Amino acid sequence: QVQLVESGGGWVQAGGSLRLSCAASGRSFNGYAMAWFRQAPGKEREFVLGTSRIDENGYRAVGIDSVKDRFIATRDNAKNTLSLQMDRLGPEDTAVYYCAARLQPSATPFRRDYDYWGQGTQVTVSS
Known about the structure:
Distance between the termini: 40 Å
Helix content: under 10%
Structural class: mainly beta
Shape: globular
Strand content: over 45%
């Protein structure tokens, strides 16, 4: 059974940092796309950052403009994990953050393209 389990969420003051992790089990996602989405209260789930395979060892991360230069997504093939380093957080980043994976090498911003989802982890940023 494939599982994605997020961790690292919590509460932080504006300007602070958090690091989220997503641990995959049940199959390897080496060479496949993984991504972070988030869902704020009363809003649709939105794409944040996706990691696409560029070669046998590397991935390229692409994300939405509002997190550019603040959020960094990284992969660890050996551990089968996806991480999200979030810096300079603001109240607008408050949301449940979800890890997602698809059995294709390229990430997309569309929820329907992902085959597996985690249960989500809450991030709350106070002003």
